[in-house]
Specification:
The chain contains 2 helices and 2 strands. The protein is an alpha+beta fold. The chain has one domain. A two-stranded antiparallel sheet has the order 1-2. A hairpin with a 2-residue loop joins strand 1 and strand 2. The longest helix is centred in the C-terminal third of the chain and has 17 residues.
């Protein structure tokens, strides 16, 4: 909603769900949402309009979510 009013803001999060929601909003509204993340001392740039960032914290969140779903479906 803030971006629809032309406001720029910065958000820091390690949460897969926060990043995923922003990714879905970028896809739905065709918004550019730049992401800068650090991976083993290197800064990486991506845009949620194009892809989810390649990030070990997000990768681990996805792995844990899949593990939880497997347990729930047993």
């Amino acid at each position: 909603m803030l971006s629809e009013y032309g406001m720029q803001f910065f958000l820091a999060s390690h949460s897969y769900f926060v990043v995923k929601k922003l990714f879905l909003l970028a896809q739905k509204k065709k918004l550019s949402i730049p992401v800068i993340s650090a991976n083993q001392g290197e800064w990486q740039y991506s845009d949620l309009r194009n892809e989810m960032p390649n990030n070990p914290i997000i990768d681990e969140s996805i792995r844990l979510y899949k593990e939880e779903m497997e347990l729930a479906l047993q």
